[in-house]
Amino acid sequence: MRIIELTEETKKDILERLLKRSPSSYRDFEERVNEILQNVKENGDAAVFGYTKQFDGAEITAENVRVTKAELDEAYESIDPGLLSVIRRSLANIRSYHEKQRQYSWFDSTENGTMLGQKVTPLASVGVYVPGGKAVYPSSVLMNIVPARVAGVGRIVMTTPPGADGRIPASTLVAANEAGVDEIYKAGGAQAVAALAFGTESIPKVDKITGPGNIYVALAKRAVYGHVSIDSVAGPSEILVLADETANPRYVAADLLSQAEHDEMASAILVTTSERLARRVSEEIDGFLKTLSRAEIIRKSLEQYGFILIAKDMGDAVDAVNEIASEHLEIVTKDAFQVMTKIRNAGAIFIGEYSSEPLGDYFAGPNHVLPTNGTAKFFSPLSVDDFIKKSSIIYYSKEALEPVHEDIIAFAQAEQLTAHANSIKVRFEDRQEQEDV
């Protein structure tokens, strides 16, 4: 793994390289995605089933597109009991964490006849997209459905691509059922996003779409934003480890590779103040690559987006961390909690050598759907907040409005909005007439 000195120039070069992985950079795919969206919008089920046959090799019809209770029962019979137990323990942690995020309506009244407040309302319907194909992601199922269920969403719909046999992996189905999904449909890719955004004869339109996916899914979500809400446009996975001389190089190397194995576009970066640690981590990575099953993917990922940056001091290291704004950040330093207070930009922060990134992916409880491509500077992890909306509440009695009504009129007239001013003025016409007399 390449080791380079951290300077303003190298930091700039790395940021430019990382940003090229953003879905916004893949204009070549947009035309194809837009064709799919338009076809589904116009032709509904027929388009979705056609694409499912073309891309997934499955014969899906209106009769079998929705997962049945019999299929769920079969999934429970075939899933490994040990995995089911793990899913349930993980689910309990995820639910417990997200329940603490619940927001409630509030109202504040005064003696002079005003009441202001905020009404919190769960979304009526949400579509959760779960990737399929070569990999199975029951963890993503939990991370998307649980906060929606905790928020009180009325209808939670899940779509995921079927295998060529028209089936969905047992772990995906069981995780969805355990988390509280209402409906599951066999559809993937941009066509599934289109179905959720516009509705078809079989798949209902929803108010918001969440969940990760490939470049087609990401671009489709971005394209339908406005017709529906979305959580984010996710890019490739990222990990950044901030470490000093006290860090265990074997642990650091293992954690960097845990994200590099996702795909060839994933990034893995170590920022350290220790040249000795840098060399030892690089050596450990070489050793792991001889044994890991996805070594070829990892090598390509590290060749393009893997870096070990040596900073002159912890201040420079923290500055780089905040500029990169990684999806996952691990802090492995002698004063990790103090360093954590200086971090402004990160999707999830893992503190200490036993808080490795996979702990957050699967079990700890916080959501693993995180901002990527530097968007941690202004976006947050998926949460209960993503599944609610807020309405402002305003009440003024006549007695409360009277002493301020002229201020409002003056403000409206200053903006030359005379109808605004008149809306207030008409409520006190009787008083004005009395004053004129």
Task: Write structural notes for this entry.
By secondary structure, this protein is of the alpha/beta class. The chain has helices at 8-19, 30-43, 45-56, 69-78, 81-99, 138-151, 170-179, 189-198, 215-224, 249-260, 275-288, 295-305, 314-324, 336-340, 357-362, 398-401, 405-414, 418-425, 429-436; strands at residues 3-5, 106-109, 114-122, 125-129, 155-160, 183-186, 208-210, 229-230, 238-243, 267-272, 306-310, 328-332, 348-351, 388-396. A six-stranded parallel β-sheet has the order 1-11-10-9-12-13, sandwiched between helices. Helix 2 crosses helix 3, helix 5 packs parallel to helix 6 and helix 17 (405-414) packs antiparallel against helix 18 (418-425). It is globular, with a radius of gyration of 26 Å.
How would you summarize what this structure contains?
The protein is an alpha/beta fold. The chain has helices spanning about 10-20, 30-45, 45-55, 70-80, 80-100, 140-150, 170-180, 190-200, 215-225, 250-260, 275-290, 295-305, 315-325, 335-340, 355-360, 400, 405-415, 420-425, 430-435, and strands spanning about 5, 105-110, 115-120, 125-130, 155-160, 185, 210, 230, 240-245, 265-270, 305-310, 330, 350, 390-395.
Which labels suit this protein?
14 strands, 5-stranded parallel β-sheet, 16% strand, 437 residues, 6-stranded parallel β-sheet, alpha/beta, 19 helices, single chain
Number of helices, counting only DSSP H or I runs of 4 residues or more: 19
Beta-strand content bin: 15-25%
Q: Could you report the average pLDDT, rounded to the nearest whole number?
A: 94
Taken from the alpha-carbon principal axes, the silhouette is globular
Derived from helix and strand composition plus strand pairing, the structural class reads alpha/beta
The biggest beta sheet, please? 6 strands, parallel
Helix content: 40-55%
DSSP strand tally: 14
Cα-atom radius of gyration: 26 Å
